[in-house]
Amino acid sequence: MTRLADNTVPVETNIEIIETDVTIECLPGSTLPAELRKAGYDITELDEGERILPAGIVEKFTRRADDELEPLSESSTKPIAETRTPAGIVKVKRWAFSMP
């Protein structure tokens, strides 16, 4: 048996590098693809799809004078009386990249 100067035995290793293709789905406007690109990944946009998210929709309501709820308009300055986040179908963008 061969020993090194520090009395250790050399070990032969076989290292195999496996590349893995990764596909991710992001909501439109997500910064994750840009962050991955900035981190050095070669990320490519594939296509669009749809997913059901448990809180995919955000609905905001104000109260009318008769105390009934009404959907909040973009230009409204009324306080938000209630926010609901039901499940909903949302558009997603699919991206792919390889991981070494």
Concise overview:
The protein is mainly beta and 100 residues long.
What is the overall silhouette? elongated
Oligomer: single chain
Given helix and strand content, the structural type is mainly beta
User: What is the string of SSEs from the N terminus onward?
Assistant: EHEEEEE
> What's the rounded overall pLDDT mean?
86
Characterization of the model:
By secondary structure, the protein is mostly beta strands. The protein has one domain. Helices cover 7% and strands 40% of the residues. It is built from one helix and six strands.
Write the topology of this structure.
Blueprint: E1 20-26, H1 32-38, E2 44-53, E3 59-63, E4 69-71, E5 82-84, E6 88-99
Summary keywords:
three-stranded antiparallel beta sheet, 100 residues, 1 helix, 6 strands, 7% helix, mainly beta
